[in-house]
Write a structure and sequence with these properties.
Layout: H1 3-16, H2 23-35, E1 48-53, E2 57-59, E3 67-69, H3 75-86, E4 90-96, H4 111-115, E5 116-120, E6 123-126, H5 131-146, E7 150-155, H6 158-172, E8 179-183, E9 190-191, E10 214-215, H7 220-227, E11 232-239, H8 242-255, E12 260-265, E13 272-277, E14 280-285, H9 296-314
Parallel strand pairs: 1-4, 1-8, 4-7, 8-11, 11-12
Antiparallel strand pairs: 2-3, 5-6, 9-10, 12-13, 13-14
C-alpha cells in the first residue's frame, strides 16, 4: 500500500468515527500531565511513556448491543506500568475499561466483595487475608497519581482507542526522544465503519447476518513517522505458532519502523519474550528463583536501557 492510499484510509476512519466524548477535558489533562516536569532545553527532566493495555471492541450497531471483542486481560500493560514508574517514568496508561489495573494485580477478581466484610450492621472492614494487598494497592496508586507519575485514560471501542492515541501522540510530540510508546493493547484488525452500521439492535428474526468488515488502517507507521517522529516506539507481536513468531516480528519491525518489537508466544508469554531490534534479538526470561516475579521486570529494565541509549545518541 502506498502512503497516499494509507492516508486516505486513515482520514476516512477518523472522519467517520463518532465524536470522542470529553475530548477537550482529555486534551487538557494530557497537556498538563506531559508538560509538568517535562524535559528542558538542556535535556533534563522526566521521561514520559504511553502504555496501551487491554483489547478494543468493534461495535456492530451505533446504539451498541453486539460487538466483536479483542480479548486481553491487560496484565502485561498493568505490570509494565508499575515497572516504568519504578524506573522513574511518567506513565499515560491508556487502558480498556474493566481490565487489570496497576498495583491491583494481586487482588482477587471481585475485590469489592472479596476483600471487604461487615464488621457490624453499620460498618465494614478489610478482610485480614487481603489486608496487605489492599493497603499496598491504595498506597502505591495514590503515590503515583498524587506524585504526577500516572494518568489513566480508559477506552472501549476501536474508535475511542485510536482517537485517544492520536491525542496522546500530539501532546507528547514536543518531548521528542524523551517520549516512549509501549503499545501492548490488542487492537482490532477489522471494523464496521460508523456510517455503515445499523443504528438500532440487529434483529435475529431477519435471518442470517451478512456483514462486511473493513480493515483498520495501520496507524503504527503514521505514529512512528508523523505523529511523534522522534519518540522511541515499541510494539508487540503475539502468535500461537512459535515457528512464525520471529519472522512476523521482524516484518513488523521493518514495515512500521519500530525501534523494538516484543515477540511473545501465547502459551509462554508470562515466562519469556523476545525483543526484536535491528541489531539482533534478545531473549528475556522471568526470574523463576524469585517468587512472584514478572517477565515485565527484566523486559522494562532492558527497554529503559535501550531508550537511554537512544536519547544519548540524539545528543551527540
Amino acid at each position: 500500500m502506498d502512503s497516499t492510499t494509507l492516508h486516505e484510509e486513515i482520514n476516512s476512519f477518523f472522519e467517520s468515527a463518532p465524536p470522542l466524548k470529553d475530548s477537550v477535558k482529555i486534551a487538557d489533562k494530557l497537556n498538563q500531565f506531559v508538560q509538568f516536569d517535562s524535559p528542558s532545553s538542556e535535556g533534563k527532566g522526566r521521561r514520559v511513556v504511553c502504555v496501551t493495555s487491554g483489547g478494543t471492541t468493534v461495535p456492530l450497531e451505533q446504539r451498541c448491543v453486539r460487538y466483536i471483542d479483542n480479548f486481553s486481560s491487560g496484565n502485561r500493560g498493568a505490570a509494565s506500568t508499575e515497572y516504568f514508574i519504578k524506573a522513574g517514568y511518567k506513565v499515560i496508561f491508556l487502558y480498556r475499561r474493566g481490565t487489570c489495573q496497576p498495583y491491583c494485580r494481586s487482588l482477587p477478581e471481585d475485590p469489592l466483595l472479596e476483600c471487604f466484610e461487615l464488621a457490624d450492621d453499620s460498618d465494614f472492614q478489610v478482610r485480614q487475608s487481603h489486608s496487605e494487598a489492599v493497603k499496598g494497592a491504595i498506597r502505591n496508586n495514590h503515590a503515583a497519581v498524587a506524585g504526577g507519575l500516572l494518568l489513566k485514560i480508559p477506552f472501549t471501542t476501536i474508535f475511542e482507542y485510536l482517537q485517544m492515541l492520536r491525542m496522546i501522540a500530539s501532546s507528547m510530540r514536543s518531548l521528542e526522544r524523551h517520549a516512549m510508546f509501549y503499545l501492548a493493547a490488542a487492537v482490532s484488525d477489522f471494523y464496521v465503519p460508523w456510517k455503515s452500521m445499523a443504528e438500532h439492535k440487529i434483529q435475529s428474526a431477519s435471518g442470517p447476518l451478512d456483514m462486511r468488515l473493513m480493515q483498520v488502517p495501520k496507524m503504527l507507521s503514521v505514529l512512528r513517522t508523523e505523529w511523534t517522529p522522534m519518540a522511541f516506539c515499541i510494539s508487540f507481536k503475539l502468535e500461537t505458532d512459535s515457528k512464525i513468531l520471529l519472522e512476523k516480528a521482524n516484518m513488523a519491525l521493518k514495515k512500521y519502523k519500530m525501534h523494538s518489537v516484543v515477540a511473545n508466544e501465547l502459551l509462554t508469554r508470562k515466562e519469556e519474550v523476545t525483543v526484536v531490534t535491528e541489531n539482533g534479538n534478545i531473549s528475556v526470561l522471568r526470574d523463576k528463583t524469585r517468587p512472584g516475579s514478572d517477565v515485565e521486570d527484566p523486559l522494562i529494565e532492558l527497554l529503559v536501557k535501550n531508550h537511554s541509549t537512544y536519547i544519548e545518541d540524539g545528543s551527540t
